[in-house]
Design brief:
Elements lengths: L4 H40 L2 H4 L1 H34 L3 H18 L1 H15 L8 E4 L2 E8 L3 E5 L5 E5 L6 E3 L5 E9 L5 H17 L12 E8 L4 E9 L4 H19 L22 E2 L5 E2 L10
Antiparallel strand pairs: 1-2, 1-5, 2-3, 3-4, 6-8, 7-8, 9-10
Length: 304
């Protein structure tokens, strides 16, 4: 097979250079878009400027826009490279439409995922940075796209949930959060006095330099909530900034333990009181005159 060197050189100078320009141009466009989006996020996505929810929403949409533009640019570059190679893209696009239609009928779950992802983003059910529970799995939302939602739980495990399988979304960090706690004290304690101590602890946390900015409203004592086996349980709650309810709850428990120890309020451990009843008098053994014993009348047997 003879290869015309002049033809190869001419092709490299014309079509080859165009292909190189297309590839470099597409990569440069992706890089520029990434830089623009990154700088825009640094200027715009700041909770102190636009609020936590809008910041999370902007972060989520920025990631989706970047991914979508990347796919569009790479697809366009691929088609232009095919044209420079000598492949007609018109019939290819027509054939791709037919193939895509056939795949659409066969991949209904994929279409369902994409439609579900669109409505999740459009209706703003959740954003990157939220802590949610979906399909029986709870975790931090690391990414959302039109097909799947990626969660990372407390142990670091990553859960990938197809959007089409998402039925109920429980968002634990939407606009604000609440720390709800149940404090148990011994039955002998004065409930009103315990409530006063809890309110003092809540006021102290609000005045704290570190935790005060995490609490949005004063401690709310809901009252005596239930009677346990060994304690009476008082329920309280605090409104906090999104995703801070767990930090606030841990610190509150720590301070409550310290305050109860200082004021002599007992936090009981589970225990039970067992009463041993006496046997019926007619079932007691009677000692006979010979020094033996026999069962009382009506019992199962008799010893002599």
């Amino acid at each position: 097979m003879n290869i015309d060197i002049d033809t190869v050189v001419n092709w490299l100078i014309t079509n080859g250079s165009r292909i190189a320009v297309i590839i470099i141009g597409s990569l440069l466009a992706i890089w520029i878009i990434r830089i623009i989006i990154s700088r825009s996020k640094r200027k715009l996505v700041h909770p102190d400027k636009i609020g936590v929810e809008r910041a999370k929403r902007t972060e989520t949409l920025a990631r989706i826009v970047e991914a979508t533009l990347r796919v569009v640019i790479l697809t366009g570059a691929f088609l232009m490279v095919l044209k420079q190679v000598g492949i007609e893209i018109g019939p290819l696009l027509a054939g791709a439409g037919v193939v895509g239609l056939a795949i659409g009928f066969g991949a209904q779950s994929l279409v369902k995922d994409v439609i579900g992802g669109f409505f999740i983003l459009f209706e703003n059910h959740m954003n990157v940075g939220d802590v949610v529970k979906i399909s029986g799995v709870a975790g931090l939302v690391e990414s959302i796209n039109l097909r799947v939602t990626v969660l990372r739980d407390l142990e670091g495990k990553v859960h990938i949930v197809p959007n089409g399988e998402i039925g109920v979304v429980t968002n634990m960090t939407k606009e604000y959060s609440r720390a709800v706690l149940e404090i148990g004290v011994a039955y002998k304690e004065n409930v009103d006095r315990v409530i006063e101590v809890l309110e003092e602890v809540g006021e102290g946390m609000q005045k704290d330099e570190a935790f005060g900015k995490l609490i949005l409203e004063p401690l709310e004592v809901l009252g005596l909530d239930s009677f346990g086996d060994s304690s009476v349980n008082i329920k309280v709650r605090m409104k906090t900034r999104p995703i801070e309810q767990w930090n606030v709850a841990r610190e509150f428990r720590k301070r409550v333990k310290t305050a109860f120890d200082e004021k002599g309020i007992e936090i009981p451990f589970p225990h039970r009181t067992i009463y041993i009843g006496e046997a019926p008098s007619e079932a007691r053994l009677k000692v006979d005159t010979q020094g033996g014993s026999k069962a009382a009348p009506g019992t199962a047997g008799e010893e002599g």
